[in-house]
Automatic annotation (TrEMBL):
Its cofactor is a divalent metal cation. Gene3D superfamilies: 3.90.950.10. Keywords: Hydrolase. GO terms for molecular function: nucleoside triphosphate diphosphatase activity. PANTHER family: BIFUNCTIONAL DTTP/UTP PYROPHOSPHATASE/METHYLTRANSFERASE PROTEIN-RELATED, BIFUNCTIONAL DTTP_UTP PYROPHOSPHATASE_METHYLTRANSFERASE PROTEIN-RELATED. This is Maf protein.
Length: 207
């Protein structure tokens, strides 16, 4: 992932890594299921890097879901405006999938047991491929928005803020002033289920 927010999170506990942009075109994946969509995108992005680099690889993808619709990064101001109008005075769900690729896992059950004890995670699995293993899970969080008036939306969509974030907002940026409640895995809104990723990484680095 080339997300600056994900990089900043990883730097809190790990320094020895490099950021690589995946060659996989995530626009080739479509799904009406938000969990399936972010999981597939995360998996395919990470797999493409792992196959090239042959080193432990972490990838992630984030989507926002509201009333059965999926909200990814807004493509233009009109779309960003629509997103904010929809979210005003409503609650949305954010899903962040994580995929960790590694050649060998000595104790897969210990990893599964560790993640399964954590809250606000779903779709937890270890997939054994021919030459490597993929540890996969999704973090989720509900975000409650206060009223966002039209003048504020107009100012907001004329900045660069909405266009590199799923749903067009970030809890750590300008949009924070409209967020009145958060229930779930906070860091999934920032861009990855961070605590679970760290738990898995620490176990993998021990082996």
């Amino acid at each position: 992932s080339t997300s600056p927010r994900r990089k900043e999170l990883m730097l809190r506990n790990y320094q020895d890594f490099k950021v690589i942009q995946s060659p996989f075109d995530e626009n080739t994946i479509t799904s009406n299921n938000p969990q399936q969509l972010c999981q597939l995108k995360s998996s395919k992005k990470g797999e493409a890097v792992f196959i090239n680099e042959k080193m432990l690889t972490i990838s992630s993808d984030t989507v926002v879901s509201f009333k059965g619709k999926i909200f990814e990064k807004p493509k233009n101001p009109a779309e960003a405006k629509y997103f904010m109008q929809q979210f005003s005075e409503n609650t949305v769900t954010v899903y962040s999938a994580a995929s960790i690729f590694v050649k060998n896992i000595k104790n897969p059950q210990k990893i599964l047991d560790t993640i399964n004890k954590m809250q606000f995670l779903t779709q937890i699995e270890i997939i054994k491929h021919d030459q490597y293993n993929e540890i996969s899970f999704i973090g989720y969080c509900e975000i409650q928005f206060t009223t966002i008036d039209e003048d504020q939306i107009t100012k907001y969509i004329n900045t660069s803020e909405p266009y590199d974030k799923a749903g067009g907002f970030g809890v750590q940026s300008v949009a924070a002033k409209w967020i009145q409640g958060i229930q779930g895995d906070y860091y999934s809104v920032v861009g990855m289920p961070y605590a679970a990723i760290c738990s898995v990484l620490d176990l993998l680095l021990e082996q």
